[in-house]
Amino acid sequence: MRPNVLIVDDDQTFLRLIQKDLEGFSESFNVLIAESGKSALDLLKKAYVSFVVSDLRMPGMDGFELLSNILKKFPDIPVYMMTSYDKPKTKDVVVKSGAAGYLKKPFTAIELFGEITKTLNKKAEGGSLHSVTLETFLQLIEMEQQTSTLRIVDKKEDRGGVLFFRNGELMNARVGDKQGKDAAYEILSWSNVSVSIEHDCVFQEKIIQGDLQAILLDAMRVKDELAEEIEMEEASVNGEILLDSPLTKANPESSGVKPEPAARDISSKKPETTAKVRPAKKEVELSKLSPIDTIRMKIKNSIGRRDGVLDIYPDQSWDALIDQTSNIGNIFNCGRLNVLYVNREKNEQFIIVPGEETTAISISSDSPWDRIIEALG
Amino acid sequence: MKDIFKDVMGLEGVHGLLVVSNEGSVMLSKFSPDFKGEAEKLSQINWEPFTIEMGNIKDAELVYDRARFYIKKSETGFLIVIIGDNAPISMVRLNCEVLLPLLTKIQPASKRIGKILRKKLF
């Protein structure tokens, strides 16, 4: 995902010219334009912007007001101010107001490009990581008590967010104009991300209360609930009948809700969250299925559609590894080997299920393989 | 050297930790007191075929009825952590990730003995 640079000016001719001039650098960043401070703020809520250049004098919301709004709502975005009304102290005042830099009009596209790349490089001074497990990485930041601003890009959905750490503590998070815990939960629900690291944090005050471990656990819960909701909606759209709630199944009387008859008209009714269950004869049905179908059903039942499974197939090439690891397990009195997760070089990941016929499950890098193992183990 | 494993061994449910060289020799082993009995069986294992099979695997997790093995490959060999059901697996993974670079400092017993002999002789 290329960074977005937002240029704000009420002078439409200038916007058109600078946009055209910057087209030559389109491999480095995208250019977004706004003709007023208000429309710039609206755009900042929707798009993941990495850099803002704004004119100082604009009708309505001027450059200073826009800067003040950005510092409040999007504190991690560097803002450069530009003006043709250059006076001796203008630069000092602008920088003291919190701007990252100052450009005197007229300037060339190359000059602007230089400032943009200098600033964007600083934002990734600590390096970039691709396809990382965010949870593990954040725990490292906490453990090493690092102060940093992490810019996270969700490669799947083309969206971005920011996590702010000071001395290993999660101070705040931002997605669009949303900040705090909700923003953190949203970012932590992304699976396939890239992270760029800046060794700085604008937040002195801790906005997000609670320790990271608890937040990570909560985020996992929110993520699961969201996935479940989506699955429910999909099931509802497909007209799938989901009966026998776990609650009513466990103790229908105590819940005070009588189970509904199975053959009722549900065409116009969306299933309740608590009414999600699989058929009671699951075990019997499973025994009739092939090993691969059984595995597929177990994964679907416990994880849903977002399982990251690419393929399931019989594969005897793992048998030698299974033999070796089973022997080692026997010697250590660990019992039967139920399932293996292997991450090969080149990031090929598999879950292997031993049996009469060894089954290999090829999975994507964002697969919740931990949960698959739990379901199969 | 064993102190570098203190954090992993200190985690709840971690039974033991081994470092096996790429050639299949045990370079280091450490077990919790409740797993000492099983640890005595270590010499019964021929690790060489295991390391051959694990050749192109970066990391792996083996789930048994009563335990789980977390295996991570380093330049030197394989770090194997034996854990119980109640172990915080994500913390185990994280700690292993952290100590992995330190594993290069461990040398096979044969090399260590060689060094000692050289020191004594010259």
Provide an overview of this structure:
The complex is a heterodimer of chains A (377) and B (122). Chain A has helices spanning 12-21, 37-46, 63-73, 90-96, 109-123, 134-143, 181-188, 212-237, 246-250, 252-255, 282-288, 291-303, 319-331, 369-376; strands spanning 4-8, 30-34, 49-55, 79-83, 101-104, 128-132, 148-154, 159-166, 169-175, 178-179, 193-198, 309-314, 337-344, 349-353, 359-363. Chain A has 14 helices and 15 strands. Chain A is elongated. The longest helix of chain A has 26 residues, at 212-237. Chain A has four domains: 4-122, Rossmann fold (3-Layer(aba) Sandwich); 128-224, no CATH class; 241-277, no CATH class; 279-377, Beta-Lactamase (2-Layer Sandwich). Chain B has five helices and five strands; from the N terminus they run αββααβββαα. Chain B has helices at residues 6-9, 36-39, 48-53, 89-99, 109-121; strands at residues 14-21, 26-31, 57-64, 68-73, 77-83. A five-stranded antiparallel beta sheet of chain B has the order 2-1-5-4-3, covered by helices on one side. Chain B is globular and about 30 Å long. Mean pLDDT of chain B is 81; it is low at 116-122. The interface between A and B is medium-sized, with 30 and 28 residues.
